[in-house]
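Worked example 4.2. Below are the chains of a multi-component assembly; read each line carefully before continuing.
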Amino acid sequence: MSKRLSKILFLLAILVAAPFKGFAEGGDGHAEEENLDVKEIIFEHLGDGYGWEVPFAHAYRIPLPVIVKAEDGKWFCFSSSSLSKVESVEHDGKTHAEAVPVVKTIDRDGKTYSFVIAHVSTHKDKVVQIFPLDANQEQEVAKEVAAAKAQGPVKGGWPVIDGYVCVDGVYYREYRPLDISITKNVAALFISTAIVLLIVMSLVRFYRRRGLKAPRKGMGFMELLVSFVYEGTIKATLGENAKKFAPYLLTCFFFILIMNLLGLIVIFPGGANLTGNIAITLVLAVMTFVMTNVFGTKHYWKEIFWPDVPLWLKCPLPIMQFIEIFGMFTKPAALCVRLFANMMGGHMIVITLTLLIFIFAAFGAAVAGATTVVSILFSLFMLALDVLVSFIQAYVFTTLSTIFIGMAVEHGDHEHAKEHPHTAQGEADAAEAEAQKERFAKEAASMDLK
Amino acid sequence: MELFTPDFGLVFWMFIAFILLFLVLAKWGWPVIIKSMESRANTIDQGVEDARKAKEQLDNAREEAKKYVEEAQAKQAEMLRDAAKMKTEIIEQAKQEAAEAARREMDAAKLSIEQARKEAELQFRNEVGKFSIDIAEKMVRDQMKSDDAQKRLVDKLLDEIEKN
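Applying the procedure described above to all two chains together yields the following structure tokens:
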């Protein structure tokens, strides 16, 4: 134990020493800090990308397919590696590799299609199709640029003009194509899907092979999770309907859980901020919305359009109806935003804490050293907390979905709905007891015979 | 604001991935797991119940066995007592029978001895008679050798007759 402790202390010491070393080598780091765009770094980490960063080599990306539909309706599919190239950039007397966007031109049917990852554009970091400007457009652009520059200094030297993109100082007309590229997030999504499939199917395989044996270790943990969600939430809430909705809810739980946890891993198979992306949580919430309303019973719809409230609340002015219909949409919307905000918040805090190191580096080596230790400790704490949050949010999403579905599939009278599973259970128990009695009678008889 | 606008491509792929995952798992995944878990839970419950019943039965059996043993012991004791009684009875009877037999033997022996004695007596008497007759004959023959003696006898006999 003490050995481990001393190791940890040693690592901390290195962390403190690291900035000193950096300063010793780099001379003054001030020039770099001036360029440090915290917001951009955070957004880059939270956002999507067309390639997947190779671990520990920021400029290099694992190429992923880009699939876009051009303005004239033709589909194009090419590697994301052709949209950027790695260049050595001289910076403060040091050269380091940096990814630079490149225009990808494709000739098809005598026409030339050009695509580029927009930088100075309203569609920042997205693939856009570009067209050279005609005379009118050129005039308009020149006017806009002049107007923007008149207002003050422009970041990067080129103002963003709606509908146009600036590539290496030249403006083009841009068209944002329909984009179903396999981006970093989509790839991570597929990896998550594969992991969930692998986990569940391996558990299935275990049951198929071993029958009634209880799984141990990892699979035992998986089973624990399944039974935690199924027995604890789904069965407890839905009762007799549990089997019908369990596949959806369990899929939700494991999918979200794996995506959450994968997002916490910094390098390749993870690192994509999936559940912190509103597109993902939106789809999940829409699924729950669909499940709720498709399987809604007569009672559920009655509660919406003719709830049990005083007549004046619903008759001439449909106040309650309005509130109920509004509630139909707010419930899944809350699901969507809750998961998204929690996960994105967690990621953002960790990144910000890490960035603190670089921000405070401007105040000198000692401050940077101290900040490093504090930041790393805080980031570690936050990551540990995020692991917890990953579980909790997956569980909360599943539980709330279960409750929403439970409310939708509820039948009219509450007592009946609640009693029914019990009586069914009781009957089953009685039948079982009866069968057992018979069995024992038989056994006793056979023993007597012996 | 870029973070708050869902990207179409991601929505599209997420939809496809989720639907596919859901369909595959709903068909081949979860039902098997849930069924297996439930059947195992049922088996365990059944096992516990069986064990409880078996224990109950065992306890009952034990009690019954104890009862049987006690009964058997009682029976054994009784049987032993009976046997002892019977033994004494048999011995007694045997003794009596033996005594009877002995007595009968003795009686028979006595009878035969008596008979033998009587026979012997009779024989003896006969013998003695014969001997005495012989002796008397011899004596008579000796005494009656002379006519004198014969005459004296006749006289004596006659005297006796006369006296009578």
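Take a moment to check your reading of the output against the notes. Chain A has two domains: 60-179, 184-412. Chain A touches chain B through 53 residues (CB under 8 Å).
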